[in-house]
Structure formats: structure tokens, C-alpha cells
Amino acid sequence: MEIDYKDHGKEPYVIDIEKATLENDNYRTTLWTGEQLQLTVMTIQPGDDIGLEVHEGIDQFLRIEEGKGLCQMGPTEDNLNVEVEVTDDSGIFVPADTWHNVTNTGEGPLRLYTIYAGPDHLPGTVHPTHEDAKNDPNEH
């Protein structure tokens, strides 16, 4: 199955999510944006991270498909009282309004997909690099 890396939101869509995640080389690619749910695939380079963030009113699920990292979560930016090493097949559940970050601690790319309930990025968002995401005026 060939992966079409565009946002297919609000239309029925079936995808090989593992293949889409493992073949994605962008920092972030949004593949589906609905009214209450959003799917993105991400590739975090060694030493880089998602960036410490909080999603107001939005729950988040992340699944690590490849690589090694450190997940940190907590009630405030300065109190990340949960620290867990994550690897292939790890699932991370981030409650709404929880500060969190995932850092690539491995030697190769950290590849994951994430589901937001509801959407967090504009439909069709693609960030080839972490720097592009940081500089996007539509990101928080």
C-alpha cells in the first residue's frame, strides 16, 4: 500500500499506520484531521525532542514504532514528576492539560504516531523539521 502523505481528514480513510510511521522522514506530518480527532506521524532526530508542551482540553496518545526515548509528564512546566524510558511499541497517554515532552535518547530516529482528541494542528500541517514547527506562527 502506497502512503499518500496528505491530510485525508473528514473522509473515510484506511492506512497501514506502522508503514506510514516508519517511512515518514518529516518532523511532523498530519495524515487525518476530523472534528474530534487528529492523527500525525513524527520523526524525532537523535538528541531532539517534541518540545515541552501542554494541550489545553486535548487528550493525546503517542505510540513509539521505532527508537528509544525519554517521556516526561507532569502537572506544571516545572514539575515533570513522571519520567519513563520508551522504546518500540510503547504507548504514552497524556491527559488534557498535562505538561509533557518526549526526547530521542537513541542513536537513530525516534518514529512515532500521535492521536489528538480533538485536533491540535491545522489540517494538512507538515513540518519537515523541528525548527519549522517552532517557527510556524500557527503552532503554540
UniProtKB/TrEMBL annotation:
Every copy of the Cupin type-2 domain together lies at 41-116
InterPro entries in alphabetical order: Cupin_2, Flavonoid_dioxygenase-like, RmlC-like_jellyroll, RmlC_Cupin_sf
Q: What is one Pfam family matched by this protein?
A: Cupin_2
Q: Which SUPFAM superfamilies does the entry link to?
A: RmlC-like cupins (SSF51182)
Q: What is the protein's name according to its record?
A: Cupin
The organism's taxonomy opens as:
Bacteria, Bacillati, Bacillota, Bacilli, Lactobacillales
